[in-house]
Amino acid sequence: MSQDSEYSEGDLRNTGMRLKHDREWDYELEEIVDAIEQRDATKVGLQFPEGLKRRGPAVADDLRELTDDDVTFMLSGQPCYGACDLDTYLMKRTDVFVHFGHSPMKDTDKVIYVPLFSNVEITPIMEEALDTLEPPEETDGVGLVTTAQHMNRYDEMTEFLEDRGYDVHSRRGDERLTHEGQVLGCNYASADVPAEQVLYVGGGKFHPLGLAMEHPDKHVVIADPVNNVVTVADTEKFMKQRYGAIHRAMDAEKWGVIFCTKIGQGRWETAEEILENNENAYLITMDEVTPDRLRNFDMDAFVNTGCPRITTDDGPQFHKPMLTPGEYRIAVGDDPLESLSFDTFHGTW
Ligand code: SF4
Fold it and tell me: For this protein, what is any one GO molecular function term (predicted)?
């Protein structure tokens, strides 16, 4: 139960938006209706992230009213936590496929992405964050990152900092990310900027933790406009949990190597490399990686090549140690303990 949604960026669960900001979103119905008409579509797939699934039937109702009677709308019931997580079964069987809540991980005509931005004001929490950031005259500026849900306010955030004298550094990390300044629960490359401090504006605790681990040399300030708190990312507790999992896996003989079949979560080469070098490793393919689904496998430990957040956020819920590929290398003695870092995911498919 994690990933970009609760943890991730592609994800709304993290932000708590569903609970705190019950509101009308802009579902971009006109754009969807236009696509249906242009393509003479009779089958339309709608995919929502977990936090917004309950809105699906009402959106389908609205679309039904705006389209001909021969158009069938189908709601994806598959779990969805990120833009990496398209329902490919439904996508292949529909003329128009709409993915709500995440920004595109890869441009394709097949999918209409409806991002669903947060309506939370960001200025008050940024004002508060100024007390925790190093002042502009004492630093080389500030890196600025946020999640897809707050991306609509990125210019406003930049302007806010610039007006207060900061040199704002931003970049688009890599092709897994849609926007400049965007981070995902598995990718913090946008924070790779020449500044000693980074301001993360967004909800949840998992994104900034990954960010702080990925950039240990930077002062990472979290301005959470959803829960209205400013904190400094502290990775200590998290690191201890990861060292604990590695330690418990050090005596493992039988390893389950998980290859995730979700379109944007497959790291075949990583899985293959482990299998080639460990005759006691078994490849397990699956889409949703959950403790229940792994319980019947009699393994001593697992290594997950799919979504890193499953490993780090849900790790303690699995019946055997669950490691990232980097942690696996430490556990089997290929890499030193000091090499422990956050498992990040680059590229698309
Ligand atoms: S793989 Fe990345 S984008 Fe996909 S759910 Fe996990 S953290 Fe989010």
Answer: metal ion binding
Q: Which domain holds residue 67?
A: 22-114
Distance (Å, whole) CA 213 – CA 220: 10
CA distance 325 to 307: 11
Give the pocket of ligand 1 (CB within 6 Å): 3-4, 8-10, 81-82, 84-85, 184-186, 264-265, 307, 309, 345
Residue-wise pLDDT for 112-170, tens only, equals: 999 889 888 999 999 999 999 999 999 999 999 999 999 999 999 999 999 999 999 99
Report the distance separating Cα 194 and Cα 140, nearest Å. 8
Say which CATH number the domain at 59 has: 3.40.50.11840
* DSSP state for residue 204 in the 8-state scheme: -
Asked if residue 169 and residue 72 are part of one domain, the reply reads no
Of 104, 106, 111, 51, give the one whose Cα is nearest residue 79. 51
CA of 162 to the centre of ligand 1 (A): 31
Tokens 């019947």 locate to 296
